Amino acid sequence: MKRNWFLAALAFFLSLTAVILLSSNPLASAPGKFASSPSLRSLIGNRPFHIATAVKEKPLLYDPMYGQVLAREFNTIMPENEFKFENVHPERDKYDFSTTDRLITFARTNGMHVRGHTLVWFHALPRWLLEGNFSRDELIAILEDHVKTVVRHYRGQVYAWDVVNEVLNADGSYRDTLWLRAIGPDYIDMAFRWAHEADPKALLFLNDYGEGLNAKSDNLYSLLHDLVSRSVPINGIGFQMHVGFLSSDNPQEVAANIKRIGDLGLEVAFTETDIPIAKLPGKTKAEKLAAQAKLYGELLQVCLDAPNCHTFGMWGFTDRYSWIKKFQGQDNAPLIFDAQYRPKPAHQAMVEVLQKWRRGD
Ligand code: XIL
Questions:
Q1: Buried b (16+ CB within 10 A) or exposed e, 10-20
Q2: Which residue has the higher pLDDT, 128 or 23?
């Protein structure tokens, strides 16, 4: 009798522990917990539209709410730093896919897509590469190996890549980078061709800012035109949309630019949208948050209205972990959830735009 009691108590204790562990494990968390208004993801449903966010691994491991809100609200993730060169390719002959593999597993477990950011950039390069004094041929070989190895590793798992990131200056000249200096502007063509060879089904993007109508976007347009006319395998351009910092805050201009890029047969994806409130109109924080909400809604509407835009991505979703906070030295509250994961007016504005879209208005 005593023994039965003991076993029953043990079974109860074990199942309680399992419930606690499962509910604090982001991989096992059920989307829907803590839901307030409808989630963005639920409004998209099965429609072919990516509602995307940058993610970081650390909060996914240590902050259970992060994973829950992420899986509830988004159908696509973009690792914020984990795919960058220094992280996946820390030594010349060594790749490290451990972190990106875990993020891919999180996405798979939660039925989400993964967008890869980024293969070729001038930041986040490892020391061995910066200080290696490599010849042109050596750097071509290194870059070819990098692009092909990373893309091949994730063939069929990463549906789209930001192949090259931030390649032009505002005046249309190529940005002075390690790759440009050593290889010349051809590095862009090469990277797209290698990525396509490694995964012919992946969608390949050039990612940059310059989204409205201005000198930089004119020059990006000419570059895209050139790439298309030389049959470089490119599917589209990512608009970073760091509004008010480097990017446009004019939805009408962004729409016009998306249209002309569509005429080249290319897609546009919003990849890194965030809208800091400091420079927005309004005296009080509430007024600024309302202005932010309006702009989020308008930009999402611009993408939904364009036949060549199927991705609205934000550079994170909670003000708790935004990169803006770190480098602008103040809480600029640029994202759609506050630091306590409460949906902000911007979230509500997006919900309303998606509800209208579903009704077909
Ligand atoms: C940023 C990350 O958000 C930061 O965490 C990191 O310290 C630096 O890079 N444009 C890009 C992104 O294409 O890769 C940058 O991400 C933000 C600007």
A1: eeeeeeeeeee
A2: 128
CA atoms of 215 and 328, how far apart (whole Å): 26
- What pLDDT is attached to residue 33? 42
Task: Note the pLDDT of residue 316.
Answer: 98
Pairing of strands 76-79, 113-120: parallel
What average pLDDT is seen over the chain?
91
Segments of the chain assigned E as strands: 31-34, 50-55, 76-79, 113-120, 160-165, 203-208, 236-239, 267-273, 309-314
- Residue 160 · residue 116 · CB < 8 Å: yes
Q: Give, as one character, the DSSP assignment of residue 278.
A: T
* β-strand partners of 120: 164
- 166 labelled catalytic: yes
Gap from CA of 95 to ligand 1 centroid (Å): 21
pLDDT at 301: 98
pLDDT of residue 238 exceeding 50, the answer is: yes
Best mutation site among 55, 57, 123, 125 for ligand 1 pocket (most ligand atoms within 8 Å of CB):
123
Pick the closest to residue 233 from 151, 137, 140, 173 (CA basis): 151
Whole-model pTM: value is 0.90
Report which protein residue has its CA nearest ligand 1's atom 4: 323
